[in-house]
Design a protein that fits this description.
Helix content is 18%, strand content 40%. It contains two helices and eight strands, in the order βαββββαβββ. The chain has an eight-stranded mixed β-sheet, covered by helices on one side.
């Protein structure tokens, strides 16, 4: 698996985008206010800021790691392998807006660990 991006649920996407760009000097990749999503470059990774209103009721401050499977690796096999070690999905598998399949797990601190198809 390859770490794809880190997500953070925020109360105000404009304020948070401004903070990460002007205070920390990070580059804004894109902002989509209709989807409540801003993408910020972290070099080889992206930080996805999710507006709380669009985040499905998740609380502000919640964060998630998204791992993308390499092309050809089946998400069903990944789900089965994780079940074998005692991890069961808390959400999914679901179809994402960009046509991938994703599944979410809870980490030890209730952080969201998302795995999506390549």
């Amino acid at each position: 698996m390859i770490l794809s991006h880190i997500s953070l649920v925020v109360r105000d996407i404009r304020r948070s985008t401004e903070f990460y760009s002007s205070k920390l000097g990070l580059d804004i990749i894109s902002v989509n206010h209709e989807m409540g999503l801003a993408k910020i470059s972290l070099g080889m990774l992206e930080l996805h800021l999710l507006d709380k209103v669009h985040a499905g009721g998740r609380p502000s401050g919640e964060f998630a790691f998204n791992f993308r499977l390499p092309d050809g690796r089946k998400i069903e096999s990944e789900i089965a392998g994780l079940k074998e070690v005692g991890l069961n999905p808390v959400l999914g598998p679901i179809a994402t807006r960009d046509g991938r399949t994703a599944v979410s797990y809870a980490g030890t601190e209730n952080e969201r660990i998302e795995i999506s198809s390549g």
